[in-house]
Write a structure and sequence with these properties.
Number of strands: 18
Protein name: Nudix family hydrolase
Shape: elongated
Distance between the termini: 75 Å
Family: Belongs to the Nudix hydrolase family.
Order of helices and strands: HEEHEEEHEHEEEEEHEEEHHHEEEE
GO molecular function: ADP-ribose diphosphatase activity; metal ion binding; NAD binding; NADH pyrophosphatase activity
Keywords: Hydrolase, Metal-binding
EC number: 3.6.1.-
Radius of gyration: 30 Å
Oligomer: single chain
Length: about 350
């Protein structure tokens, strides 16, 4: 059998529409392309065009598939063709990941949903034949109309951010081995005490009825790519205007099903004040002040809550040098070559004191 090929130079600009039942006869009318019998291939030959430098699958090259591969594609892609041509520009641009999967290039997606549907179907057949595993599809919010197309093809939601939604497709039979979405949110609290034995406390504008009227330590969430210790310093500064220095993590809490069925890690940090004048964040904080430690501890909500009371007990023990928290140390791991913050305590046996930051 002779299979005719289409040179990339012979292609005119086109946008892929729905495939008809007779691919050969409709190509000229639907896409305005010309094909030439210049190149030949034997039955079953599969030509793959790939950049050797970066494993990038290119969409501007012609690729020949024989009709026995066409039989493997789903019927809504190809129907009725006895001998089919597939072109490299009908395969979505993508990159190999290090786990045998595919990362589809979000910057080179077709804008037309019909074109995307056809190319996605062909691409999945192509990647299945190549033995690929997990497929990652990142759809920018500007192309959210492509989401139903991907879901119909079998993609599942993985996670979403303000600017995009990530979908995945697992090719091999058996359970999906792709990593799940992030399971935790990370919060921090800043325990700040001055030389007068006063604790920096706030009352929030937006709080639950259970904590109404409570004077509490400044708290918040860690930002993306932010360290625990820098997040604690930032939150205290934002809510109260007080500059601080991180000393150590004195405790952390782990609880489940907090927000949208996610777990929560909450790190309580001991901070040293570097300034004293309070400037309240009007958006989040109703009031802030320096409160004597004794008054802070004697609040009914503190005394009645076993977790709050235990945290205060740990903090007081740290002040009395009867407890050591975890200070941060910068190390480099050979596994990834990145600078890592490792938290551990260092105890000085000579004076029975913790060596903090």
């Amino acid at each position: 059998m002779e299979v005719k090929s289409l040179s990339s130079n012979s292609l005119s600009t086109f946008e892929v529409g729905k495939f008809s039942s007779t691919l050969f006869t409709s190509f000229r009318h639907k896409f305005g392309v010309r094909y030439s019998p210049k190149f030949k291939c034997r039955r079953g030959l599969f030509l793959k065009t790939c950049s050797a430098s970066d494993d990038t699958y290119l969409a501007d090259k012609a690729v020949i598939f024989s009709d026995d591969f066409a039989s493997e594609t789903s019927s809504h892609c190809i129907n009725g063709s006895t001998s089919s041509l597939y072109y490299r520009n009908l395969i979505l641009d993508a990159f190999d990941d290090e786990y045998g999967g595919i990362l589809i290039d979000p910057n080179r997606l077709p804008h037309n949903p019909y074109a995307f549907a056809s190319m996605l179907c062909l691409s999945l057949s192509h990647w299945k034949r190549m033995g690929k595993k997990g497929i990652w599809l990142k759809l920018p919010i500007e192309q959210s109309d492509l989401v139903p197309v991907a879901v119909k093809e079998g993609f599942q939601y993985h996670h979403a951010e303000p600017g995009y939604v990530m979908l995945t497709y697992w090719i091999p039979e058996g359970p999906c081995m792709l990593p799940a979405n992030a399971s935790h949110q990370v919060g921090i609290g800043g325990f700040v005490i001055n030389q007068n034995n006063e604790v920096l406390v706030v009352q929030e504008k937006h709080c639950s009825p259970a904590t109404l009227g409570l004077w509490k330590i400044p708290t918040g969430f860690i930002h993306e790519a932010e360290e625990i210790y820098t997040g604690a310093v930032r939150e205290v500064k934002e809510e109260t205007g007080i500059d601080t220095e991180f000393i150590e993590v004195i405790a952390f809490r782990h609880v489940h099903n907090v927000a949208f069925e996610k777990s929560d890690l909450f790190f309580i940090c001991m901070l040293k004040p570097l300034s004293s004048t309070i400037t309240v964040d009007d958006l989040e904080i109703d009031a802030a002040k320096w409160m004597p430690l004794v008054e802070f501890v004697e609040q009914p909500l503190i005394q009645e809550d076993s977790m709050f009371k235990k945290i205060v007990d740990i903090f007081i023990a740290r002040l009395g040098k009867r407890y050591c928290g975890l200070s941060t140390h910068q190390v480099v791991s050979k596994f990834d070559g990145k600078i890592t913050s490792l938290y551990y305590n260092v105890f000085d046996n000579d004076d029975s004191n913790c060596v903090g930051k």
